[in-house]
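Replying to the earlier thread about multi-chain prediction with a worked example.

Input:
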Amino acid sequence: MKLVFEKSVKDRQGFKLPDTDVPSAGALKETYLRKTDAALPEMSELDVVRHFTQLSQRNFSVDANFYPLGSCTMKYNPKFTEKVAAMPGFADLHPLLPQLKGGERYAQGALEVLYESERWLSMITGMKAFTMQPLAGAHGELTGIMLMAAYHKAKGNKKKIVIIPDSAHGTNPASAAVAGYEIVTIPSDKKGGMDIEKLKSVLSDEVAGLMVTSPDTYGVFNPQIDEIARLIHSVDGIMYYDGANLNAILGRARPGDLGFDVVHVNLHKTFATPHGGGGPGSGPVGVGEKLEKFLPVSRVTKDALGVYALNYDGPDSIGYIASFYGAFGVILKAYAYMLLLGGDGLKETSAHAVLNANYLLSRLKGAYYLPFDRVCMHECLFSASRQAERGVHAIDIAKFLIDKKVHPPTVYFPLTVKEAIMIEPTETESKETLDVFVELMLEADELTRKDPGAFKSFPTTMPIFRPDETKAARELKVNYFASNA
Amino acid sequence: MDIINHYLYTKEHEWIDIDGKTATVGITDYAQSALGDITYVELPGIDGQVEQFEQLTALESVKSASDIFSPVSGKILEVNDELTDDPGLINRDPYEKGWIAKVEISDEEEASNLMTADEYRSYLESLDRNDGGAAEAEE
Amino acid sequence: MNPFIANTPDDTRAMLDAIGVKSIDELFADIQPRHAPRSFDLPKGLSEFEVTSKLNTLALKNSVGPVPFIGGGYYDHYVPAACGALISRGEFYTAYTPYQPEAAQGTLQSLFEFQSAMCTLTGMDVSNASLYEGGTALYEAMMMAIRITGRTRIVMDGGVSPIYRKLIKSYTHNLHFEFVEAPLLHGQSDRALLKKLVDDKTAAVILQNPNFFGAIDDHTDIVTTAHASGALVIESVYPVSLGMLKTPGEMGVDIATGEGQSLGLPLNFGGPYLGFITTRKKFIRQMPGRIVGETVDSAGNRCFVNTLQAREQHIRREKATSNVCTNVALCAIQAVIFMTLIGKQGLKKLARLNYDKAEFLKAQLVKIPGVQVKTSAPTFNEFTVCLPVNANDVIERMMHLGFAAGFPLGRYYDGLDKYLLVAVTEKRTKDEMLAYAEVLGRVVKELQ
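Result:
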């Protein structure tokens, strides 16, 4: 498809601006002005609408396709939450209004949304307090690590190391490193859990904390998690809960009760806000009592009269971690979702997420190798190692599925399992959809026996064939104008 | 997998060709094949000092990045500028045109810490090769 | 009844049979009784109608009624209806990160178009596919300069947003960087002071244009000074102003960054917003965040993929250039739709409207006895006025009279209690501005 710049025709315009109703202010000094105009496209409104509508049709999406991307919780994004977020009383609200003197009164509704969202998430995760500010999961991680550092600094602890299991998301070590910590990686044991003996062997007074995803990225809830927490606490370490997989345990277990000191949750996973093609996300952070005073400013407060306010006065706070109060438009959607489901609905969510994943596990384990053959939580982890022996790799099976209009599961993650295929169906998919997927996966397996060579040409029904990623990385054309200048 | 008989090797799959005081360093056929199409070579600075088995430079392929370690200690004399425009040289000819750097050897004894071609061959056989691509899960 | 779960009791039974367990609870056996929640005391769920109605009540408690003259980096620009309509397509907003390029050409091509538009807008070579928001983008730009130069001293111009500066301060609290600040002189960057402060340990000079107080500048000479010491220059910019103002590229700036909210995104009480970074081609490997690149498919047709992923956290883990994982793809797509609608001529006209209107209001305000503009520095669509009374008191009274009068600089600066930062966009009419000036004059008089 042509680019907007290639469709541009001089003197077209897609939006009508008002005529000026004030006199011209005259010219600015030349030194302040740009010499050439920005080469933005010139198109009529219809042509713009058609261009982007056609582009959108070149995407898979949850609205149109089953999207069992492991670890990403691609559940349905309820439509009514979009309507809520677009309400002018929220969408047009200026973030600096409540920072005027006495200005909180102009934003009571918005502050209530933030305050109540914090309370819901605190109850769901068993934490004492939340900040809604982090703008994504990785941003939540960084915030959590900064809280960890502030705690140790306040206590005069000399800490250097953050422990992370090898099955963790790449953001965990990246976040800890950005905050200045050294990373020690713990391998998984044969069952996929953290190797507790290895953990004991690296425990020391230099350990600042442990970052864990629970259930972990193998889809397994580690029943020894409370024992792990005890070990980390014995060296005054902080237990960090990566909430990537919270969708599995709503109402069944709470990180706070399990011994975690700080958590982040991904509203764009568990709380059904849309992924937007890769953001905006939202990664609120919750803490137990010992970290509360370090939370970023501002904090939302509520007084005895039910009046909400912003408190910027935190002598122990780590300070600002975002310009404002978080991805408010995203928070609103998550809040609306929680209100609709209520406590029972949330618990039911996890029940069916886990049921759906186990159903897929039981149906596919004949054809695909299961590295950890046991009940799973909300996602099941297979390996295409058998198919790989026939020359067909996980990525080839992914491309087969694309041709069948199903978004592939996550492939090659976790890194510790060869040819990994991680499937997370979520609770919002019906049995019929799961059955269709199972049939496709079995068909793919069948094809690896009959005609393994066929896979290399997949997909054939999409707008493009397989792209040359090497060329993209070697030639690095990332700007249309770079070669048209 | 090609292995050149008179070169020495490291466990991280670098090779070294010693000519008097000068050592030419590159990565092995096995390494280039495991990495896939190499898209970028970060060349080390000339005159820089490296220690044996410490990081010399880094390579990128489409979905992975790998640190390259120096098989010997010494001063960097020369780097292969051709790799800047054509990183694929390493894939096509890892042992000759795809060399990465030349190092002035500071301690000849260090060669005893390296593997001979035969030792490297058995080392490769002992490795269980992972064909995995890149991870795609995220926050 | 949960409308988001399809499984009926019959489905559930059939699935449990296939799994070989009797109940869903059995699947949770690893979660032992001692792990059970100590409390899960949450309200019962509501219907869609009840939730919508409850939230509408909350929305109505927010004051979006008063005519807004507040900016501070976040502006009340008009969002064309087509922007909202197009990004409301489920194919865009319910997709995920384009890791399977064959199934994500829509997102990928849109992001490539976004990158290209940001490059031509800022006059730079390369752009990433967006970051969280303007403040965190500035922090990332600073970290990028530190990686490129291997130096750790940062010279911060006094015109940089105080919000961004507070944010950078908390992020770097545990890292060993040196920060020096160069206060403004007559409202613009203090050349002589910057020249003194930039040395061969300086990684970057951080500037903002227009600066937080509204003044515009040509930073070309500062770039020359910085480059002479081997330091980079980072400039945080306001995209709409680039419809007329000299670009970071034209000034020789190394890294341009900023907040893209003005490109068709609603104010949304602070987010989601749109951070961006554009830079010189030679720095592309040090640029954080996702980048979309052009390539061809196996049939030789042009297509788009995520590229340079080897720099990112899911490959490099603790060695990644940044821990950033998410961009704000949907906001970036919204911005490129906006830039396409407004077009080359429209952006110029939009910038001009903002400038002319702000100048008109400025001229009205200085007619009020006691109200002054203290510097002669030119401004774009926002300017600082000094009142004869406390700015907070004026704002409070004017709110009751139907105007969000501006932002009180005393909120972030000691000694600036009488200073008011006033923003004007294309949405403000002459009548609104005349009424604003009239009411401000009255309120100032009352308070004296």
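Chain C touches chain B at residues 97, 99, 285, 308-311, 313-316, 319, 325-326 (CB under 8 Å).

Feel free to reuse this layout for your own posts.
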